Amino acid sequence: MYRFKQGLSAADTGRLPANIVLLLLLLFSGACRSKKTWPVSFPQEELRKRLTPKQFHVTQERGTESAFTGEFTYHKDEGTYHCVVCGAPLFSSDSKFDSGSGWPSFFDLLKEESVSLADDFSYGLHRVETTCSQCGAHLGHLFDDGPKPTGKRYCINSASLAFQAAGPDEGRASGSSGAVTSGKADL
Ligand SMILES: [Zn+2]
């Protein structure tokens, strides 16, 4: 009556192996989704203090700001757009264009490796999520309907970006919440 088993089956092997299989499945799917380890990480409490609620929601909870509400949608200054969380340079104003979508749109990256791509099946759609390769901050999505020469459209939340103007005062990035300039904390 001995039967050679092909793989694991809950009926043949009892409760424990089935639980292990379930655990492995959970671990595996978790590793493939957003639980990836990034080179740079920040304590969530620090980010809650440093970022605005919208910046936190978009970058840490994969949120989306409402169309036409972001501060960089129509921003045309020359400079570099950085990750608002870790400061990594992501986009140049040279590749920014008006897509009409209501979000800042870029047709290219500063560096290919600065943004990571992943499948996103939320809302019953298949989209390609864009994430900061340094800290894992959610940025927005990538579409294939951009202008030449790349044909790509990086549709990015303003809330994920900090702008650094080109010119003499390079080295100062705007977009981060300002430090206290007057008065000192009593603690
Ligand atoms: Zn980042």
Strand content: 15-25%
Poorly predicted segments? 1-14, 29-34, 176-186
- What oligomerization state is this entry in? single chain
Biggest beta-sheet profile:
6 strands, antiparallel
Strand adjacency order, main sheet = 3-4-8-7-6-5
GO cellular component, one term: cytoplasm
Region (Disordered): 167-187
Keywords: Metal-binding, Oxidoreductase, Signal, Zinc
Domain MsrB: 44-166
How is this fold's topology laid out?
Elements: H1 10-13, H2 15-32, H3 44-50, H4 53-60, E1 79-83, E2 89-92, E3 96-97, E4 105-106, E5 115-120, E6 127-132, E7 138-143, E8 153-156, E9 161-165
Antiparallel strand pairs: 1-2, 1-9, 3-4, 4-8, 5-6, 6-7, 7-8
The protein binds zinc ion.
Zinc ion is lined by residues 83, 85-86, 88, 132, 134-135, 137.
Signal peptide: 1-34
Organism: Poecilia latipinna (sailfin molly)
Family: Belongs to the MsrB Met sulfoxide reductase family.
